[in-house]
Structures are given as C-alpha cells and as structure tokens.
Amino acid sequence: MQTDYLDLLRTAIRDVPDFPQEGILFKDITPVLADPYLMKLAIDGMIEPFADLKVDKVVGIDARGFIFGSMIAQRLNAGFVPVRKKGKLPWKTAGVDYSLEYGTNRVEMHVDAIQPGEKVLLADDLLATGGTAGAALHLILGAGAELLGSTFFIELGFLDGRAKLASTGPVHALLTFG
Asked: pLDDT digits over 93-142, tens only?
C-alpha cells in the first residue's frame, strides 16, 4: 500500500492518554471508522497480503474486530466467526483464558463455528501484547482449522505481541506504532 495512504490513516488516529487506565495511551480509531474512504483504505491494506488466498472463514475478536473482520469476510467472500468475551455467545462454546496489557479475560467461540480443515484468517483492530489474539488463535487451531494468518489494523510494536503469534503463521499489521 502506498505511503501517502498509510499517512492518511495514521494521522486520522487519535491518541487518548490514560484510557482505559492511567499510563495507557489509547489509539482511538473512531475517526477512521467514521470516514468511508479511510475505512476502505484500512480494509484494503489489511486484506492485501491475503487477497489471493481462498479463505473460508474470517474470525473477528470482540468488539472492534467484528467491524474489521465482517468487512474483510464480505470482501473475501468468506463466512464470519465472532470470538466474544465470556458469556456473550448464546450456544455451546469453547473458551480460553488469557492475559492482556491491563488484566485478564476469557474469550469464547461457538464449537461448530469452524470446521476441521477450513482455511481461516484472524482479523482484529489492534495487536498489543498478543494475549487476546493468541487466545483466539488457540480456539481456531483447536477447531482443526488451517490458519492462513492474522491481520491487524494497528500494531503496538513496543509490546512485542507479534512474537507470541509468530509460530502460528504470517502476521500482518497495516500500521505500527513504537
């Protein structure tokens, strides 16, 4: 993707200090989501490394990953699978606990959401410590899927989350901070 498009996306992201707690610099993507041209650029850039692959399912992580993942799935003519926080899915689930940059959590996925052998792409808005994405990948691989890779809108490079995911397949981030 051309540098000027990346610069447009980067400058649209708003920094919010001390959110959700003191010491965290939150990257607010709502200005990108509010602009259809910027949103198209973001989706184009996140899809680019995987555009020529046959994708059966795109998995999006609660909650902003639902936005990116569902749009990527539509563009790739694939199904969409939500990975949600504990207790939010209405049917039988598999779940995994994980650590994140400011606490612990659990994510779950319907047990029949991915069939063995399906080709799956993970999509989310942010790669930070890799805890949430790693938990989602655990669920995907546990379902017997073939993981094609992971794509993120933003990576916080200084938190080294990529290292936790490297053994699972290609990791792509459109924008990296730090």
From this structure: 999 998 765 678 999 999 999 999 999 999 999 999 899 999 999 999 99
Give the domains, in start order, of the chain with CATH numbers. Answer: 54-177 (3.40.50.2020)
Residue of 10, 14, 22, 64 with catalytic role = 64
List the catalytic residue out of 14, 101, 155, 162.
101
CA nearest 133: which of 116, 152, 120? 152
Q: CB-based contacts of 36: which residues, under 8 Å, 6+ apart?
A: none
Q: Give yes or no: 48 in active site.
A: no
Q: What is the reported pLDDT for 3? A: 78
Residues 150 and 122: beta-carbon distance below 8 Å? yes
Angle at 92 between CA 91 and CA 98, to 5 degrees: 110
Q: How far apart are CA 78 and CA 156, in angstroms?
A: 28
